[in-house]
Design goal:
The structure is a single chain. This protein is mainly α and 182 residues long. It has eight helices and two strands. It has a two-stranded antiparallel ribbon with strand order 1-2. A hairpin with a 5-residue loop joins strand 1 and strand 2. The longest helix is centred in the N-terminal third of the chain and has 34 residues. It starts with a helix and ends with a helix.
Length: 182
């Protein structure tokens, strides 16, 4: 009976730790999205949030990484006055986190180049997702495609930054102990 209680207590502690870590990474991705905002010609903006979304996916795994990755940037859109993009950002960034985490889980034991491939695949979701959403909002695929170059630049930066951060953090025994998925 005592063993069951200890197991249940450990499960609650693990879920609580994951919830706190996901909340912290959601807040960090919100802040990273809002700190440096470079306006794009399509009415949106370039930001640093993708690097945190991807890193959060690597650190937390698919479910928690998707949750943190979707909520943080969606909240940033809401706070920055881009309310029309909140639903799209929530879904697109969550899918980015999910895909990046699943790919990273597969690639973890392989060379660092695979991390960049996982990040690039996730960023393709972002570029395509916003192009389709912009097309939906404007009622024109041509208008939706105007944001693709800016989103490619944002995605490339996010993929590069998250890959470099991931490789650096993997060298820390403390980080690997706190985030065993890394």
């Amino acid at each position: 009976m005592e063993k069951i209680r200890e197991t249940a207590r450990a499960d609650v502690q693990d879920r609580t730790r994951m919830l706190v870590q996901a909340g912290a990474l959601a807040a960090l991705s919100c802040a990273a999205t809002m700190v440096l905002r470079i306006p794009s010609p399509t009415g949106g903006y370039l930001n640093l949030g993708d690097a945190v979304v991807l890193l959060g996916a690597y650190l937390l795994g698919p479910a928690w990484g998707a949750l943190a990755g979707g909520i943080g940037p969606a909240l940033a859109d809401l706070l920055a006055g881009y309310a029309a993009y909140v639903p799209a950002t929530l879904v697109i960034k969550a899918l980015m986190g999910l895909l990046a985490a699943l790919g990273y889980r597969w690639a973890r034991e392989r060379a660092g180049g695979w991390t960049a491939v996982c990040a690039a695949a996730a960023e393709i979701v972002m570029v395509a997702g916003y192009a389709l959403y912009d097309a939906f909002l404007a009622g024109s695929l041509a208008v939706g495609m105007t944001g693709v170059p800016g989103n490619i630049v944002q995605g490339a930066f996010g993929a590069a930054a998250s890959t470099l951060l991931c490789l650096a953090l993997r060298r820390s025994g403390y980080v690997r102990r706190v985030f065993p998925r890394l």
